[in-house]
Design brief:
Layout: E1 6-10, H1 18-32, H2 39-49, E2 59-65, E3 71-79, E4 89-96, H3 105-116, E5 121-123, H4 131-137
Parallel strand pairs: 4-5
Antiparallel strand pairs: 1-2, 2-3, 3-4
Amino acid sequence: MKNPQGFSLYTPQQKPTTSERSELVDFLFKELGKYGDPKKDISNCLKFALAESEKSLGGFALVYRNENSEIVGATIINETGMGKYIPDNILVYIAVHESTRGKGIGKKIMKKAIETAKGDIALHVEPDNPAKFLYEKLGFTNKYLEMRYKK
């Protein structure tokens, strides 16, 4: 049975069913588009949030459903365990169904994620991603330039 309209919160203590998990990964893969990752990576991120992977500290996933019980927005947040020197949490994925973008769903999800998270939240956003403006309106700041070295 699909969850009713509104939020579903998945945590290490309250895990999604196999079908809910698959639906969430498929949704994020499709709706993230060019800003996304392969399904395997999204699935691994969810496992980390649900404390199902080695060295995981947990986190949570939020799913928002419409009146037809269809996913219209979702996010996955992982705990970092480094709250004394970087944010306690990292928002890894967030997406809103393309047919509902610009209707406040992303803002609703972000506010619920901020309320649910224990501690500060970091996120990475591409400079051309329109969601950047939402994050700024909610109080996120761009303090650093991220640099990566890949072996």
